[in-house]
Structure formats: structure tokens, C-alpha cells
Amino acid sequence: MNYTIRQLRVFVAVAQQGSFSHAGQVIGLSQSAVSHSIKELEAEMGIRLLDRTTREVLLTEAGQQLATRLERLLEELNTTLLDVRSYGQQRSGTVRIAASQTISAHLMPQCLAASQQRYPDIKVVLRDRPQQWVLQSVRNAEVDFGIVIGPLQSSDFEYQPILDEPFLLLCRQDDVLAKVSDMHWQMLEGRTMVLQDYASGSRVLIDDALRTQKVGVDIVQEIGHPATLFPMVEAGIGISILPALALPLPEGRPLMVRRILPEINRTLMLIRRKNRSLSPAAEAIWQEVQQQGMLLTQQRESQPEF
Fold it and tell me: Which domains does the chain have, with CATH numbers?
């Protein structure tokens, strides 16, 4: 049968009010529109539901059976739709996020604090792991979404860039490169370097930058945690390259950072499984992280740190 919810609602209103005009006032339709809707429903069902006289509208036996059942069914339908709508507006529950160590240490604290203040009923669980683990966790639905360093060559995810940041030179204050007026990639030629290993999403990008700029360096140490770069450079083991998000430098250390020309950036991206919707709570936190990335970008543009 090709009838509509609207036709059923109109019929129930007429059954309850006993009048086309009164039913129209209740549901916001003209008397003629109500009459037309009832005629369409009766034609579709192939049975008369109402007996009309000049004074009143009476239910037939079939109409009485239909009205009794429809009132309950339409009420249940309305309750179900309201419940679904309420779920769509829900801002509670647990949201699980995975991010690499640098992102977790320097971007996520602001995101977590802002989320806690804005959505006190949402519990956010942050998992601090290497980038490959983050990708696998999103792929396996162990977390709601992740924050990674792009670009990525994968069709498994949907991406949302949130922040571009430059790679910087990290060196001692007494290093010869600390004193040059403009620092260029070619000035790294032949230098001894300490870099993060390939668990970091940045390492491949740094390798690509050195290759593109035709610079050869001597990599003497590859470490896992970005905080280890600072004491190694301070000890004179080598200079390093790090993303701007790793700032600020530890206080009281004889270290400095320099912009490297031409500027080469890395992109931080939100990722989630392709063609999979986030829960309302996860969607709210996704938007909050995106907003915090925009705020950080604006702050750096107005107050450069290096």
C-alpha cells in the first residue's frame, strides 16, 4: 500500500476530533486538505473509513479498528523518532583518540582542557603511541579517531588537515649555524645529525626534504622520543631537525632553533575510518581538536616563536 505517515496522522486527528475543520485546526491544515487526504487514504486502502453527514463525521467499523491501533502505533513512532533525535544531540560518553608523542604532548593538552570545559559529560581517553600504531588503531576501530602527520598514501581513512607547521633547525647557541643571517638547507651539508627514527611520521618527511634539497648529512643517532633530541644536541652529539610543535625549548639550556629556507612544512591531520560515522560525542571532540588547531595557527601567525 502506498500511503503516507501524513495521511495516517490526518485520519487519527479526524477520528479524535470528529470533524474535518477541527482536525485541520489541530494539525495546521485547511478543511479541504484534510478531506482530500482522507479520500486518498480510503482510495489506497480500498475501504470506507468515515461516514460523512452535514453535521458530523462518524467512524465506520473499519475506521474504528484502524483508529484504535493507529493512535498507539503513531505514538510509539513519535517516541522512537524523538529518542533518535535526542541521541543525535547527545554529548556524553567516552571518546578514544590516538596521537603520536609530539602531538600528544604539545597539542592535546589544550584540546583536552577545552573539551572538558565545554563537554563535561564526555570522557576523552588519549592513547600516546607511534604513528603506525595510531593508523592501525583507527583502522581496527580501537579508537574513534586519530591525529597523524601527513600526507598519507592510504584509502582506508577520511582526512581533515588541522595544522601546518615548519621544520626547524635545532642546534647549540655556540654552533656556527646559530650565527648565520639566513639559514638554508644546503648549510646542513656534511653535518652530523641526531634524528627521530621511523616510528615518527616526521622522519620520512625530513628524509624527503634533505633529498629534495640535495643535502647529504651524517645521521649518528636515531631516537624514539622527541624529548631526547634536546639533551643529545646539547651534549654536542649532533644538530637536529624538529617540527615547530616540539617547542618551546627546555628552559636554561644552551639551545636555539632557526627557520630553514625554503620553508618546508608538515601537516597534522585528523583521520577516521572511511565511510564510518562518528558518535555525536566523538564528532564534538573531532570539531574541538580542529578548532584548537586553527587557534594555534592564528597564534603563531600573530606571535612568531622563532
Answer: 5-88 (1.10.10.10), 93-162+267-302 (3.40.190.10), 165-265 (3.40.190.10)
